[in-house]
Amino acid sequence: MRIGDLARESGVSRRLLRYYEEQGLLRPRRLPNGYREYADADVAAVRHIRTMLAAGLPTTVIGRLLHCVHDDGERMVPTACPGMVTNLRREHRRITETIERLQTSQQALDTMLTTVLTTGLDQR
DNA sequence: ATTCTAACA
DNA sequence: TGTTAGGA
Which residues does A18 contact at the CB level (< 8 Å), separation at least 6? Predict the structure, then answer.
């Protein structure tokens, strides 16, 4: 199928499908005229990409994990694949650190807010 | 009609 | 990510 077909079947714009290829997530073969020719399995692949992006994984990581999952027609089924656990743990830790930074910022804001309210200096 | 690449009011 | 230009 060509890009327009995949765009319809996956619900992802053609622009984005080209971007995924640019990121190494999809590797459609090329027709003699230069058009991209996608495999039927790419429909599921796009779903998996969306799922991983929703999990906050960066495209560089998704590129490697994509080959570690199989599709049961509905969901993304993870399979044994070297490096997968390591990658997922690294991303999980990255997210934990981000949460911690945000909590620190929140505490700082809370302190400032409490102070200004207590002091009654919220003159506008 | 569709797709391609490159680029950005 | 959208959109548009200029081609095939």
Answer: A3, A36
Same domain, A36 and A89: no
Residue A37: domain span: 1-81
Same domain, A56 and A27: yes
Same-domain pairing of A38 and A60: yes
Read off the pTM. Answer: 0.80
- The two structure tokens encoding residue A107: 């505490």
In tens digits, what is the pLDDT along chain A, a chain of 124 residues? 999 999 999 999 999 999 999 999 999 999 999 999 999 999 999 999 999 998 888 899 899 889 889 999 888 888 888 778 888 888 889 889 989 999 999 999 999 999 999 987 776 6
First-to-final CA distance of chain A: 61
Nucleotides of C under 7 A from a protein CB: 1-3
How many domains is chain A partitioned into structurally? 2
The C1' atom of B9 and the CA atom of A30 lie apart, in whole Å, by: 34
